[in-house]
Each structure stands twice: as C-alpha cells, then as structure tokens.
Sequence to fold (295 residues):
Amino acid sequence: MINSISFKTIALVCKYSAPGIAKDLLSLAHFLVDAGYAVVLEQEMATKLSITEFTVMPPAQIGQHANAVIVLGGDGTMLGIARQLAPFKIPLIGINQGRLGFMTDIPFEQRYEVLSEILAGHYQLEHRSLLEGAVIRNGQKISGGLAFNDIVVARGAGSGMVDLTVTVDGHFMYSQRSDGLIISTPTGSTAYALSAGGPLLHPDLAGIVFVPIAPHTLSNRPIVVSDSSKIVIEISVAREASVNFDMQSFADLMVGDQIHIQRSDDLVCFLHPKEWNYFHTLREKLHWNEAPAGN
Fold:
C-alpha cells in the first residue's frame, strides 16, 4: 500500500555537536536535492555548522513550510525537535546516529535505501502522545513545558528526600517520600522510567505511568492511569527540589508549589520504515532473548 503524504520540502535536523556530522548532513541534503526535493536546514544547527548553501529556518517556520523532517542523531535530538514541531503535525523520520535509537529507527548505514522507500510512500504512520505541565506558585503559573518522554520531580543533588502529595482527577492518590517521581508517556517508558523500575507501555496505550525514584516506603510502586487524567503534584517538604521536562528544560520548586500535568492536545507524528514493528525495536535495543556471552 502506498501512502498519500506529498513530500516536496524536507527539513533536516541533526545533533550539531557530533563529530563529523556536517559531512553526513551535507551528503544527505545533496541526496535529497538530487532526488528532486527542496531542502531546508534548521537555523541554529546550520549556524553552528557554518553551512550556508541551503535555506535555513527556525523550527516554527519549518513547521509551516516543510512536509517532513528528517532527524539525524539520537533520541535526544528527536525529543528536542519533536516537542517544538508537535503543534504543526509535521511527520518526523529518524536516522539513528546515537546509542539506543528507540525513536530514530533507521540504521545509519541503510539511510538512503530506507529513505527512498519512505519518500516513495511506503511507510508506517504513527502518532504518539505528549504531556504538558505547568508549575503553579501562589495561584500563578511560573513555568511549564511539553514532554515527549517524561516530567520528573526530583530532589536537589545535595539535599534529602522530597515529600510529595499526588492527586488524580481531584482524588487523593498518595503521599510519597522519595528522591522524586517520574510521570511518563508510553514513549518515555523505555527511558528514565524503565531504569527506575517502571513498566514498558506500548505506544498505542492511552496511559500515563507514575514511577517513584527510590521511595522511602517500598509499597510505593509504579502505577498507570488513564491519559485523560488531570494530575496535580504538590511539594509538601523539600530543602531543594526541581522539575524537568524531558531533561531539556528545568524549574526550581518551593514548598507549596504544584505541578499540574495532563496529556497535550498535540501529537508527535512518526514515519517508520514499512517493516517496522515495536517489538522488534524492543528486542534489538534491550537485547531480549540474547544468549549469554561465550555461548
């Protein structure tokens, strides 16, 4: 089956600090131009790499003018641009130059072959949810942001535990004393939430997962709630605490601050290779069913 997105203008985004990335980026850009596509580069990236031969645009303009964005890098690069472009519903294609690549799923050495297939209309279209959060202090919003992976409330590096009170849809859920709390999307269930003992959530699930970080009471276990839930986390006791959104934006917290969290109305759109499936990704990235070394 051939899908129907018309690809005319394609934007390129990369991790500009990666060694040798300018050469790979230019090679990809020329491949696309030779194939008949107009190419634009994300502005900050192009400036950092001193590339001047292509049109450059900030993310907001890319969202208005491009038909797709190709991300060359790892999951961190994808996280940053996905949040900025989600309001524009522009599809993202990931070429993996990172370590894990749960979201950048095209192997670098197969990039031209697979891209040719996707741009010819042979792809899988997938939508994934985001979270939006707002920090409320004395009734006023002082900070906030979107998260594709997770929103994390955490203690300071040199401080003791944080006491939190959590309500869901106006119902008291629990008080918790811990090093912090991860509130994750299904996409983020393979990130920090997984390393803290949380469950894997299939991306199609309409859920939000809470994962305590080193809880004082071992009965504080991960729990999954509906992604239609309205969540409020209040800081009850803390010497130092902060909240971060995908580890890419941060806000300091005080006792009495509330973090209001809900599913965003925006979605992230991915274009995967036609043979892609989520369980293959898990097997490959998490090394499931591997024989022990030496066998």
